[in-house]
Specification:
The complex is a heterodimer of chains A (114) and B (396). Chain A has a single domain, classed as Up-down Bundle (Four Helix Bundle (Hemerythrin (Met), subunit A)), CATH 1.20.120. Chain A is 77% helix and 0% strand. Chain A has six helices and no strands. Chain B has helices at 10-22, 33-41, 61-70, 88-96, 109-160, 166-179, 205-213, 246-319, 327-373, 378-390, and strands at residues 2-6, 26-30, 47-52, 79-83, 101-104, 184-189, 194-198, 220-223, 226-230, 234-238. Residues 375-396 of chain B have low confidence and may be disordered. Chain B folds into three domains: 2-132, Response regulator (Rossmann fold, 3-Layer(aba) Sandwich); 142-271, GAF domain (Beta-Lactamase); 273-390, no CATH class. Helices cover 63% and strands 13% of the residues of chain B. A five-stranded parallel sheet of chain B has the order 2-1-3-4-5, sandwiched between helices. A five-stranded antiparallel sheet of chain B has the order 7-6-10-9-8, sandwiched between helices. Classes of the chains: A mainly alpha (114), B alpha/beta (396). The interface between A and B is medium-sized, with 23 and 20 residues.
């Protein structure tokens, strides 16, 4: 069974998920469920000036994106993660977040149809 | 073998657990470090390896690792970090917190299984080394304890030689056996009869009978918690041998053997001393009796001599006037008689000097015999006083 998701290296993802397609699909669905509110959660942490929590959220997302093979989004998530540890402007942070969020939305839409 | 996977992201624990289970490992997962610690403390879960994320809410991975290693029953569980933090600084932090290895996210199956296998081997080697170390430590402690025990036994060899009698010897013995926590009774045969001593109350008749009956049952006779160590001249009953601890039991038996050897040697010397003393007193009694007889005979002879001379003097005095002798001749005879009486008296007084020597000798023997039987200083004067009182002579 071929799994095709634009912006995701599904072959790599399947390999990392024990080379088990069914399990990979389960992981993708869990990802969609767990990270649909990522943008909201991240903004909440920023509003609370909680850089640590913002970092943790983006770090966890990075790890999951790496695990499912979402390489393009991973780059943005890692950039966002890095921004949390460096004193960058909120504008830059939100720009990056918006780009990442848009990518995630695309991926999640595709996952919904699997 | 169960592996605990800790990550605040459920997706990542699912992936790692899936890989591990595929390779035959049992897995448990926790989303927080505090939940993981609860699972680790649960005695029913035997976790052999921990794989943990670093960035987690509340308690991070480094804190979690330090916490695990601070709990003695968990400190030997191998610990591996899984993280996408890949800088050298991150890895050093991991090592500092006590972790054994580090795997980079995303976790790759071959890499994970290889590291897990290595960690299990490392853990096995470490446990084996710790087991050897523990065994070596135990052996060292045993050797030191045994050496200390031998020191006590050597001291007892010296101490026993200072014992002046059986009671003193038993007191010194019980001081030693009490230091081992042992409760004991002792039978000593002094060559004539069995004497019993106890480190507590007196030895009950039944206990005496048991000890006496078992004296021919071999060097060590064990029954329940009790052991009797038998020697020709004594038996030592130990009432609370540590039968639940075979190592201690064996060591104690060795020590008791050595103690009883020393005891036996000292008892033999004390019995010998008693026998020598008895023989000496017997000889002294014989000598004293002989001296008494000689002294009495001598005094009797002296007395008889005096009486003969007196009788002769009276008879001559009565006879001379009827002999019709010249006055001059009578005077000469009386002078000869007086000279003879003077010489006899002189001989008697010289004889008194010999008697003084006899009395002095008897007095010394009396004193010696009295001291041998009762070592009291006051009695010496009493003996010499009574001896001099009985030594008075009535002179004519």
């Amino acid at each position: 069974m071929d799994v095709v998701i634009t912006g995701v290296d599904t072959e790599k993802g399947i390999l990392l998920c024990n080379n088990n397609v069914e399990f990979y699909l389960t992981i993708l669905k869990k990802f969609r469920r767990n990270y649909s509110s990522f943008k909201v959660d991240f903004i909440a942490a920023v509003d609370l000036n909680d850089a640590g929590e913002a970092f943790r959220l983006s770090h966890s997302l990075s790890s999951v994106l790496a695990a499912i093979g979402a390489s393009e989004s991973l780059v943005l998530a890692q950039k966002l993660e890095s921004m949390c540890n460096n004193n960058v402007s909120l504008t830059d942070v939100y720009n990056c977040l918006n780009m990442l969020s848009s990518n995630l939305d695309d991926i999640m839409d595709q996952i919904k149809d699997l | 073998m169960t592996i605990l996977v800790v990550d605040d992201e459920e997706i990542l624990t699912d992936i790692v657990c899936s890989i591990l289970e595929k390779h035959g490992y049992k897995t448990l997962s926790a989303n927080t470090a505090s939940r993981a610690i609860e699972m680790l403390k649960d005695a029913t879960t035997e976790i052999k390896l921990i794989i943990s994320d670093v960035i987690m809410p509340e308690m991070n991975g480094y804190e979690f690792c330090s916490c695990v290693h601070s709990i003695s029953k968990l400190k030997n569980i191998p610990f591996m970090f899984s993280s996408s933090l890949t800088t050298l600084e991150d890895k050093i932090k991991g090592i500092d917190s006590g972790a054994d290895d580090y795997i980079t996210k995303p976790v790759v199956e071959d890499d994970l299984i290889l590291k897990v296998s290595h960690l299990f081997k490392l853990s096995s080697d470490r446990n084996s080394l710790e087991g050897q170390l523990e065994e070596a430590h135990k052996t060292a402690i045993q050797a030191m304890t045994y050496s200390s025990d031998l020191g006590k036994v050597v001291n007892f060899y010296e101490d026993a030689m200072l014992a002046v009698d059986f009671e003193d010897l038993s007191t010194r013995l019980f001081k030693l056996t009490k230091s081992y926590g042992l409760s004991c009774s002792l039978r000593i045969n002094d060559g004539c009869e069995d004497l019993f001593f106890s480190d507590g109350f007196s030895v009950a008749p039944l206990e005496q009978k048991v000890i006496t009956t078992a004296k021919n049952m071999g060097r060590f006779y064990d029954f329940g918690k009790r052991t009797i160590v038998n020697y020709d001249n004594h038996s030592l009953l130990i009432k609370n041998m540590p039968i639940d601890n075979s190592d201690q039991y064996g060591i104690l038996k060795d020590i008791l053997g050595a103690i009883c050897n020393a005891l036996s040697a000292r008892i033999a010397i004390l019995i010998n001393n008693i026998n020598v003393e008895r023989q000496k007193n017997n000889v002294l009694k014989l000598v004293k009796g002989a001296l008494d007889t000689i002294n009495k005979s001598y005094r009797s002879i002296q007395q008889t001599n005096v009486e003969i001379i007196e009788d002769m003097n009276e008879k001559i005095d009565a006879t001379i006037p009827h002999l019709g002798l010249m006055e001059d001749t009578e005077n000469r005879l009386e002078a000869i008689l007086e000279q003879t009486i003077d010489r006899t008296n002189k001989n008697f007084f010289d004889g008194l000097h010999i008697e003084d020597i006899f009395l002095s000798l008897q007095s010394e023997i009396d004193k010696y015999m009295y001291i041998s039987e009762s070592p009291s200083a006051d009695t010496t004067d009493q003996v010499s006083n009574s001896s001099s009182a009985s030594g008075e002579l009535e002179l004519f």
